[in-house]
Every structure is written in C-alpha cells, then in structure tokens.
From TrEMBL:
Listed Gene3D superfamilies: 3.10.450.50, DNA helicase RuvA subunit, C-terminal domain (1.10.8.10), Ribonuclease Inhibitor (3.80.10.10)
Keywords attached to this entry: Leucine-rich repeat, mRNA transport, Nucleus, Repeat, Transport
GO MF annotations in UniProt: RNA binding
Highest taxon listed in the record's lineage: Eukaryota
Organism name: Daldinia eschscholtzii
Biased composition, class Low complexity, residue ranges: 73-85
Protein localization: Nucleus
Gene Ontology terms: cellular component: nucleus
Region of interest (Disordered), ranges: 1-98
Domain TAP-C: 639-695
Name of the protein described by the UniProt record: mRNA export factor mex67
Record GO biological process: poly(A)+ mRNA export from nucleus
C-alpha cells in the first residue's frame, strides 16, 4: 500500500558510536571488525609522547576483548554508550516493550492483542497468531493447572505447564525429536493446547501424571471449543473491535458472498478512527480486519460458505506481502479483484505463487503490469491451477480444469483379480494361520515361522491417497520404527530399523499396537492376495548349491489397531510382502525369509474381489487342486476361448478337448494353465518325453 509519508525527524548526522576521550577529542568506532585507517591518531601518554604499549584502534574494536575486572572503575565508562548526536532524540523500543508485556500478560494469542498489534505493532506483529493448519493438528484440553502450586506463579503457571508437557512427553515417548506445542490458551479450568497429531498423541500419554502437586487430566478437546472471552480486552481494544466489525458489516454482501474492501483510504469511518494519519500504515489496518474475520468465522467451512469473493481494488497495493494475511484468513477464495493498484511486475505477486489454489477469477485491470509485461497472463495461469478468468479474458475452460485435476490425481494400477499360484496349498495355509495368530499371539507366530536370519521392516506411508471424508489417524506408535526410504535417507538409521532374527522381531512386534484383521474367509472381499513361485532361494541345509524353490506372497488389506495405553482405535490399510522358503533342519518346514509391512491411511483396495464362492471344476487330465482363496476371474468370450485352446494345443501337444479342460480348471487364465500343465507333466514324466522320443 502507499506509504503514509516520511518519518518525523531526519537521520542522525554524527558518528554512530561516538566515544568521548579525556582530552575532548572523539574516536569513531563501529565495533566488531573495522577497517584499519592510516590517519587514525595514536594514543599519547600524559607527557604528550606516543604510547607504544597502548592497543591500536583495530585491537580495541576486536571481537575478542579482554573481560573487565570486577573492581575496574573504568569498565562502566567504557561500556556506556552515549546518546546519538543527530537531530532526532533517542526513543524507547516500543515494539520490544509490547512483546514483553504480551508475554507477561499471556495475551499474545487473544483477539484483542491481534487487533492492537495490527494497529500499533510492527510488520511481524501477527506472525505468532497465524492460524494453525487444522487438518494436521490436534487440540487437547488439560485440567489441573488451577489447583496446582504453579498457579501462583507469574503468568498463572502456564509457561511451566507447557514446558513440563513438552519435556515429559519426549522422555516418555523415548524419541529424539522435540515435542512442540504450537498454541495454548486458558479458558476457565482448562488449558487448551494445539500441537501436531504426532506430538499430541505423545502428550496424551501423560494423562494422570503429577504436576506441581496435582494430577493432570489430559483428553482430546471436543469439536466445539468455547469461544474466546473478551473480558481481558481493554475498553479501547473493544471499541476498535466493534468499529472494525461495523466496517466489515457495511462492506459485506451476503447474497453475492462478497467482502468489498476496495478504496479503504476513502472510508470515512476508518479515517475518523485515525488509521490513515501519522505513522500508522494502511497494511496494519488490513491485518486488523483479517484478525476480526478470524474471530467471526471459527472454521474453514464457515469461511468458505460466507466469503467467496474479495475486492481490494483502489488500495495502492504494489506487493502482496502487504495483504498476505488475506490468504491465511481466506485460503479458498474463488474470485479476487486487485484492479486499480500499483502492481508493476510479477515480483509483486510471486509470494502468492503457491497459495489460493482454488482461485478462478483474478482481476488486474489498470495496473502497470499490463503495459510493462504483456505476457504476465501465461505465468499467472501456471501459478493458479484453477484460474479461468484473468482480467476479463478466459484463460481456461472448466473442462480443461477438470482434465488437469484428473491427470494430477494418482491413478492406481488396474486390478483384474488376484493371481494366486500356490504349490500344494502352502501359501494358503500360511496366510490363514498368519492373519489369525498375528492378532492374538505374535510371540509364538514369530517363534514358529522366523529364525535368526529372518528380516522384518515396516514403512509408514503418511501421504497416500484416501477418501476426503476419512481423517487420517496419527502415526505416533509406528513412526519410530518406520523404514520408509523416501523419508529415511541415512544409512545407519536404515540399518537400525531392519529387524533381523527372531528376538528383535518379537521385540518390535510387542511395541506395535494390537490389531484386528477382518476374517479371511468370511470377509475375503477386503483383501487382495497374490502368490507366485520363486526359485534360487538359499538352502538353509546347504545341500543345494543352486538354491531351492519358495514363493512370494503379496497381501493388501485393512486392519483396526488400538493405541497402547488408551482405548483409541483407528482403521488403516496395509500391504505386506512375504518371501517364504524351506526351514532349516529340525525346525518348522516353512520359514519367513523376509517380511515387509507398509501401513497407510485407510482406503479400500482398488478392484478388490468380491467374496468367493466355491465351485467344483471337473479336471480329467490334471489332478484336482484345492480351491484357492481367490475368486476366479471372469471367463472370456467364446472367440477368445477358442483362440486360447488352439494356442495351448500348439504349446503342449494336448488335444483340443483336454486343452479346454486344462484352461477351464485354471479359470481360463492361459499362463496359469500352462504352469499347471508343466507342473503335472513333471509329476507324470520324471524324464523329458521330447528327449526320449529323440532317442
């Protein structure tokens, strides 16, 4: 916005750090590292001779100064800084005094302090009052401060309580990262604190802990928090708040959802309040208006429902930094009018490059940028992905916006049904036993299937797609074990979080939250399971130098877990990959070589198969195979079936009738039918029939 004019007084004309000497001369020094000057007068003794033992000017101004002795009478004189000799008299640092007073009074986050800071504070007065990113935070209510011994301390003991919660939560969670409380306030008998979900879950574990002679009761705050009280606001702040509310009410059109803040400098009410007189800057008024709006609309949904358009035309704005609080108060604006301002280039708009992602209309008419940079439209179109109307010109159609959003949306790999190629029912038996035992008896499960060379790892995927109506749960119980290579880049940490051997795996499983998986047989539609044979695995007995056969099983599904120490439950999706091989002599015949688990926010698996139905299939040539736990895929049409029969005849030498029986037994999966034929041929012919025929 336009500046209000030059400041009172002029810059000081004398040396910045003038220091008087005993003979009335002045030696200028800025302190720290100084440039050596050839014309600096040396120090003389009382007889007028040059004092060779005295330190030079450069040494006197060095950072490494000698510490003054306690009884040195000249120390105070040397450290005293005289007043500047310029024309402007020294003034106290009002901003520092205001910050200290707000900290002592505990009103830094109240609406009154926000308005007062917006009127008389500096450019950063509202930095600490910016709204917290609500989707990634959690608010807790703490009871017990009023009855504690710390309540008699200065500030009511709030600072001591917050320090206790942050320090104790870090100790209890045994984590190296710092637990941080972002926001706090006192309302009645409760202290409301806001922190990230991960930190808040650790603070919840302190419920019942003793603090200053009382027991704390810590719970998650209800959805509707009590409104902030105006009792602590001064009469002047209340008058300002009411006046700004009146201005906003006169400039708000509820039918059009428009907040008209154009030409604020011509508003009679604001001029009467003195916002545009003296040294007060108009941008401070704008921050105060946004602070009042934050008090009027408590949630982001209320803001979206009430305000879709804002006009800031004719306010002499040349940089969006002056109105940055607009994007914090109304981040979901659809229409914005910046006409008749002083934007001369894209630099004045660049700080909004990653904000206002839902903006559809932006008006920059009658700004110098139109003549200075005629190609500004192409750049702004890239900055705002939903922008359709720029200064009255259509730059995108709604169809183009929809296509761009669809292209940017992650597309899962199509699922055409699971591919379950089991061998003698080993994979099916392992999965059935593993799912049930993992929920009720992890210790014996690990002892049965894992040995000293088995590995287990877990990865937390906290940025995976999920339905918008499902709030992602916290990851406090999992994050300390996570080996997600996108997040964990240090080799030593990756090594530490790979659990090798039965004992380490049992210890890790014991610290993970208890789980409950859906019944594998009754609710199979909630799983996708693939199973494939694999060759060349290490032989634990050492008998086969070329390795032995095994299988790899990939399992996608869901489970519910319960946070340790609380009754809070959450539903999550998971993927788990097992590498199975033969066990060592004297142990279980099947062992888990590798177990990789990844957990993420709940999202139903794409293309998950419906609940299977058992259908007997006649197989004259192939021995009957146990019905797998996978639903057969949809059979192809008659033409495709005929082509598959012919191709199988050519590859196997079977008659068309038997080829059809084989394909039918493999649910018309050509690759699976070919594998089944080769497996059964090895059982019937221990030698190669082609080789015998050649001989």
């Amino acid at each position: 916005m336009a500046p209000s004019g030059p400041r009172k007084g002029s810059a000081p004309t004398g040396p910045r750090n003038s220091r008087g000497t005993s003979n009335g001369t002045k030696a200028a020094s800025r302190g720290g590292i100084s440039k050596r000057r050839s014309n600096v007068t040396g120090r003389v003794d009382k007889d007028g001779d040059l004092d060779m033992d005295a330190p030079s000017a450069a040494n006197r101004n060095s950072r490494k100064t000698k510490r003054a002795e306690p009884n040195d009478p000249t120390a105070a004189a040397r450290s005293t800084r005289p007043a500047p000799t310029g024309s402007r008299a020294p003034r106290p640092n009002a901003k520092t005094q205001q910050i200290i007073q707000r900290v002592f009074n505990g009103t830094g986050g109240s609406l009154s302090s926000r308005i007062a800071s917006g009127i008389s504070g500096g450019a950063k007065a509202f930095k600490s009052t910016r709204p917290v990113n609500a989707p990634n935070t959690m608010t807790l209510q703490v009871q017990g401060l009023k009855s504690s011994k710390a309540a008699s301390n200065e500030g009511g003991g709030l600072k001591e309580l917050l320090t206790f919660l942050e320090r104790k939560a870090q100790v209890v969670s045994k984590t190296a990262r710092n637990i941080r409380i972002k926001k706090s306030s006192i309302n009645g008998d409760f202290v409301y604190i806001t922190a990230s979900k991960e930190d808040a879950e650790e603070i919840l574990k302190l419920n019942g802990f003793a603090f200053a002679g009382t027991s704390l009761n810590i719970t998650e705050a209800p959805g509707d928090l009590p409104p902030a009280s105006d009792n602590n606001m001064s009469s002047t702040a209340l008058e300002v708040k009411d006046a700004l509310r009146n201005v906003l009410s006169l400039r708000y059109d509820s039918g059009a959802k428009l907040l008209n803040l154009s030409s604020l400098g011509e508003d009679a009410g604001l001029n009467q309040m003195g916002f545009f007189s003296g040294e007060s800057k108009p941008e401070k008024l704008f921050r105060a208006l946004m602070a009042v709006c934050d008090g009027l609309f408590k949630t982001a949904q209320e803001k979206r429902a009430a305000v879709a358009s804002v006009s800031l035309a004719g306010n002499s704005i040349d940089d969006v930094l002056q109105i940055m609080s607009l994007t914090e108060t109304f981040p979901d604006l659809v229409n914005l009018d910046l006409s008749r301002n002083h934007f001369k280039d894209l630099k004045g708009l660049q700080k909004w490059r990653y904000r206002l992602r839902k903006l559809e209309t932006l008006l920059l008419n009658e700004n110098p940028i139109e003549a200075a940079n005629p190609n500004y439209a192409a750049e702004l179109t890239n900055w705002f992905p939903r922008l359709q109307n720029l200064s009255g010109i259509q730059v995108r159609t709604p169809e183009q916006v929809a296509a761009m959003e669809a292209a940017a949306r992650p597309t899962p790999i199509p699922q055409h049904g699971a591919d379950f190629r089991d061998i003698n029912g080993v994979g099916e038996g392992f999965i059935k036993e593993f799912v049930s035992m993992y929920d009720v008896d992890r210790q014996n499960l690990a002892a049965k299937y894992y040995d000293n060379e088995s590995t287990f790892s877990i990865a937390v995927i906290n940025s995976s797609p999920h339905p918008q109506n499902n709030q992602p749960p916290g990851w406090g119980a999992y994050i300390k074990f996570s080996r997600n290579h996108n997040k964990i880049t240090h080799t030593s940490t990756r090594i530490q979080r790979l659990f090798v051997g039965t004992n380490l795996i049992q210890s890790a499983w014991q610290q993970l939250p208890p789980t409950r998986h859906p019944d594998l047989l009754a609710e199979f539609n909630k799983y996708i399971i693939d199973c494939h044979p694999i060759h060349g695995l290490p032989d634990p007995s050492g008998a086969s130098p070329v390795g032995v056969d095994g299988m790899i099983i990939t399992m996608h599904g869901e489970f519910e877990d319960q946070e340790p120490g609380t009754i809070k439950t959450a539903k999550r999706s998971f993927s788990r990959t097992f590498l199975l091989g033969p066990g060592a002599p004297g142990r279980n015949p099947i062992r888990v070589i590798s177990d990789m688990l990844s957990v993420r926010a709940f999202n139903p698996p794409p293309g998950s198969t419906p609940e299977p139905t058992v259908q007997p299939v006649a197989q004259p040539v192939v021995q009957p195979v146990a019905q797998p736990i996978v639903q057969p895929v949809t059979q192809p049409n008659a033409d495709l079936q005929q082509q598959m029969v012919i191709e199988l005849c050519n590859r196997t030498g079977m008659t068309p009738e038997y080829s059809k029986f084989c394909l039918d037994g493999a649910n018309w999966n050509f690759d699976q039918a070919l594998v089944m034929f080769n497996e059964k041929r090895v059982r019937v012919f221990p030698y190669d029939p082609d080789e015998v025929e050649a001989n």
